[in-house]
Amino acid sequence: MSRVLHLSDTHLMAPGGLHGGGKVDTTAVLRHVLASLEGLGPLDAVVVSGDVSDDGSVHSYETVRELVGGFAREHGAAAVAYAMGNHDLPGPFTQVLGPVRSVHDARGLRLVVLDSSVPRHGHGVLGDEQLDRLREVLAEPAPLGSLVVVHHSPLPAPTVLHEGLKLQEPQRLLDALAGTDARAVLSGHYHHPYVATLPGGLTAVVAPGVANRTDVLVEHGSERVLRGSGACLVDVDEVGVRVTVLSVAAPGDGEELFVLDPDVVQRILRTEGAPAR
Fold first, then answer.
1. What is the pLDDT averaged over residues 47-55?
2. What pLDDT sits at residue 200?
3. To which CATH superfamily is domain 2-272 assigned?
């Protein structure tokens, strides 16, 4: 069995930067999350599925490389994979973490990292060139199958804001994965755990955010963000894919960080969402 720790949306910042309306030290939160997961035991891979940084600073990427990379080594992981999110900047990301698209071998389990980010926007797109390359990579099966890592999930969004910032034409990704050795798609972006088995047996996983969590029970049209963190443990074997959502307790969990009313949500979508067709 392969064991993968799936983190997402760490939103790290340069020293002094605070996230969540100026209330959250995301580096401290990541340290706490990793310390809380020390007892996980051996791992084959660690994945961070996008929005690694919030400010795009070189320092933020160096921090995640030190903290997550160190955790991975301590737990025997053969691979560490980072994906671009809509808050990440390709220049600093590549400088510190390597290519924005990559393929990794985790003791026979293949990790294929895609880049769904769109410069200066919040929604996600996977174009023809990237999907064609994905098909080429998956044309030859890996010994234990493949996991695809992409920030924007093919699953439906939990709030109006995320609906407007979702992956465009998600079926194109699913079509590219049909008939291949892909076992699961690991994503983030929603800051809320979400797991579904799709037609053909593919498992889609959205990890909870490290930086904070989305209140999916907010009044329709609004966006409410709360203090809280989590991760997923993804176990893969010949029988299937099993996902354990890991909630990480910390003082202040559930505290409201900020609320966006419907007018603000719509203003964000006009500037950061997908262009009207």
1. 98
2. 86
3. Metallo-dependent phosphatases (3.60.21.10)
